[in-house]
Specification:
mainly alpha; Growth Hormone, Chain: A; 17 helices; 2 strands; 77% helix; globular; disordered N terminus
Length: 457
């Protein structure tokens, strides 16, 4: 299965198809009103549709990555796509809201399995010389999924009801599962080593309660013990995890990597880039609806320009990272992300659709450049036999950034809106513009720090 000029890319398309079901989950946001009506829920209860899924996925990623390194990425991908098929059907057929949440937990497990091995499986299918290009094409699938989610599934929900965002992904996952059996069987046998179950449990405890603490951060000023308890359990989980990893022969992840200031900085930067980028999905839909008065299909197309920028940049970034230092590509991506976010902050009472589209595209293009360079740095730093952990670490920092952004950015928006002293809709605009300017500062500061430190490749 070769083509003129190099290996066939069909195996990457199979991995990309299976991965596609994860970023398509962005469509669940537009499904919230339909779910609330179907199950007759108070609006605040809808947050658990997101929390149950993200919490499960993020807390298991690194453990699944280590299992993939041990048992083989193809095997974990098969389990993940097969499991996801059943989870999507479980969500679509849920007879009650608790049943839907249970199915969302199952969906989070499937997403964790797929994402934990996806980058490692993709790069293992091609020569090492094609690593950066492969990572770029793999990242492109996230952009495509993010673009298709709100636009296509918005129409499906209106036509087929709330369950469409789940039922229509089941055939995609099933197709990827069936095609994955045709992927080459790895020549490297599965490792015979003990899995660090205690480390995996402590890490899941620390990450899950950290995400819950972030979700409950706005309650810290109230007389409530729950946020404090979440923080305490999260800290305890991470302390126990670090202690376990230091004395384990084959840890979930070797914490010595984080002794490098550059390695720690690039991981922190990835989380911050995703934190700032989430401002678009968090606030732009409200602007397009309340201020610009755009119809839902048109608003979906405008929002799709950011993930479209990610998709186009990802295919280019693979070539750039192969020819230039990946850290330089990452800095260029952060700079473009800052410029795009600042452009969005200029949106006023009279919406300039062209400026919004261009700004969102530039922001997405920057994120695409940064993410490919970041994954390239991870796969170079962490040994090849541990690439499951490398890919899982990248996905985990992404999820942490998004969840943190959902809390921090909304808190900033609400504070700026409340303290503006203006009436609506001017108060909304003040909060919107201020939040996006602060979001733009984050990648801009990363660029300045990167130039000052002159990251070593």
């Amino acid at each position: 299965m070769t083509r003129r000029g190099g290996p066939s890319l069909w195996p990457l398309l199979v991995v990309g198809l299976g991965t596609l079901v994860v970023p398509l989950d962005s469509a669940v946001n537009i499904d919230f009103p339909f779910i609330v009506r179907h199950f007759d829920l108070p609006i605040p209860m809808i947050q658990w549709v997101v929390i149950s899924y993200v919490l499960t996925q993020t807390s298991l990623l690194l453990a699944f990555g280590r299992i993939g390194d041990m048992l083989g990425y193809r095997r974990i991908f098969l389990i993940g796509t097969g499991w996801s098929t059943l989870a999507f059907l479980g969500c679509a057929l849920a007879p009650s809201y608790p049943a839907l949440l249970a199915a969302r937990v199952a969906q989070g497990i499937g997403a964790g399995l797929i994402l934990s091995c996806g980058p490692a499986l993709a790069t293992s299918l091609f020569p090492e010389a094609m690593r950066t290009r492969t990572l770029g094409l793999y990242t492109m699938m996230f952009g495509i999924g993010g673009a298709l989610g709100p636009s296509v599934f918005g129409l499906l929900v209106e036509r087929f009801g709330w369950s469409a965002v789940f039922s229509f992904r089941a055939p995609i996952a099933l197709t990827a599962f069936l095609l994955a059996w045709l992927l080459p069987v790895p020549s490297r046998p599965a490792r015979r080593e003990a899995f660090d179950a205690a480390g995996g449990a402590f890490l899941a405890l620390g990450l899950s309660f950290m995400l819950l603490a972030l979700n409950q951060a706005h309650h810290l000023g109230e007389m409530s013990l729950w946020p404090v308890l979440c923080v305490g359990l999260s800290v305890a989980g991470f302390v126990l995890f670090a202690r376990q990893e230091r004395r384990c022969d084959r840890p979930i992840i070797d914490l010595r990597y984080f002794r490098s200031a550059d390695f720690t900085a690039i991981n922190l930067a990835h989380a911050l880039i995703n934190l700032s980028a989430f401002a678009i999905m968090l606030l732009a839909p409200f602007y397009l609806s309340f201020i610009a008065r755009m119809p839902v299909p048109l608003a979906g197309l405008v929002l799709a320009t950011s993930p479209l920028g990610i998709a186009l940049a990802a295919s280019l970034a693979g070539r750039l990272a192969a020819r230039h230092q990946p850290r330089l590509v990452a800095l260029l991506g952060a700079l473009a992300s800052a410029a795009g976010l600042f452009g969005i902050s200029t949106a006023g009472a009279e919406a300039d659709t062209l400026v919004l589209i261009v700004s969102m595209f530039v922001q997405g293009f920057g994120v695409g450049l940064f993410q490919v360079a970041y994954f390239d740095i991870l796969t170079v730093t962490i040994p090849r036999e541990d690439r499951g952990v490398a890919g899982a670490l990248g996905m985990a920092t992404r999820s942490i950034g998004v969840v943190t952004g959902a809390t921090v950015l909304m808190l900033i928006f609400q504070t700026l809106r409340a303290t503006s002293g203006l009436a609506e809709p001017q108060a909304f605009l003040a909060g919107f513009q201020g939040t996006f300017r602060i979001a733009a500062v984050i990648p801009a500061v990363l660029v300045l720090l990167g130039l000052m430190r002159r990251f070593r490749s």
